[in-house]
Amino acid sequence: MKQTALSRRAFLLGLGAVSSAALLSACNTNAPVNSGPTPSQPEREPAASPDASSEVTREPILTADEFPMTDGSTACIPLIAQIMADTTGMDLETAQSCVSTNTTAWAWRNLSLYGGNEGDSTKLIIAYEAPESVKEEMAAEGGPLDQKAIGRDALVFIVNEENPVQSLSQQQLRDIYAGKITNWKDVGGADLPIVAFQRREDSGSQTLFQKLLIQGGELMDAPTELAPTEMGGLVDSIAEYNNTANAIGFSVYYYIDQMYSKPGLRLLAVDGVTPSNETIADQSYPLCNEFYAAVRQDSGADTPERKVYDWLSTDAGRACIEKSGYVAVQD
């Protein structure tokens, strides 16, 4: 079944408004489009903006009402809001109140399989890599896409701050998730069983986990209670599991660093390298991967989605990505 993200245009019609001015007014009320956190939009603090003198001049290329229906990954919500603000002139707080997304898998489906439909169908996505099963669906039934890497993130591993283990090798992590290493004492920790959380198969972080770390190797099946549906649920579970320090799980760096930081948790170094914007940018951290912008190939040069897609490769577009706290990459 098709899933759709909430669009500004759908919100506008729902209120019976007829102009972008009405949209902006509505988004500034005390009851915004998303009045509280949902599984796809957790509580978060926006990334800090750099000094204004270092910013590239923001020149709107669309009106607020022209901004295309956009879907994406949970970890890309702040970036989508910043893109909306920078390309339309909308203030960032208003843009943040107008953005929600589906899962990574459904964002790709919504663009490739349904994005050619008229009306409020997805026209642009900002997302992490699609799961292999979704790539197969799109190849068989979907419309062809233009996509490009616009930023880089990393798969990171999370433990309780009371866990004495500071770093694990990639092989140790593989052995933990294959069920070969089952006690923290075998990797320099306390004599406690290792409780290894995963995500569901169609999640963006699980896709990266299997691609970057497991690489087709052995992977134990995770019980339902150890494979939360939502990324925030995994972070909460690691922090709260039996009030002990024996759980481990993973996420993408931006999400855990900027969107859903949880007291009592910390990130592990992998192969001795701690994840940070700097180690992700120079790829010294070993588990890095790009995230993407995509539109349908049949999107014309003058369509709003194509204009935003092209804009992301300009100096202003890269500045937007970095201003949001992500690592930008060249095409």
Describe the overall structure:
- Residues 133-298 form the PBP domain.
- It is found in: Cell membrane.
- Belongs to the PstS family.
- The chain is α/β, with parallel strands linked by helices and 331 residues long.
- The chain folds into two domains: 49-151 and 290-328, 3-Layer(aba) Sandwich (D-Maltodextrin-Binding Protein, domain 2), CATH 3.40.190.10; 153-288, 3-Layer(aba) Sandwich (D-Maltodextrin-Binding Protein, domain 2), CATH 3.40.190.
- Helices cover 33% and strands 15% of the residues.
- It has helices at residues 8-14, 20-27, 77-88, 92-97, 104-112, 132-141, 170-177, 204-214, 231-240, 253-259, 277-281, 304-311, 315-323; strands spanning 70-72, 124-127, 145-160, 167-168, 195-196, 247-252, 265-267, 269-270, 288-296, 327-328.
- Strands 1, 2, 3, 5, 6, 7, 9 and 10 form an eight-stranded mixed sheet that branches. The chain has a two-stranded parallel sheet with strand order 4-8.
- The longest helix has 12 residues, at 77-88.
- The chain is globular, with a radius of gyration of 20 Å.
- The two termini are 33 Å apart.
- Mean pLDDT is 82; it is low at 1-54.
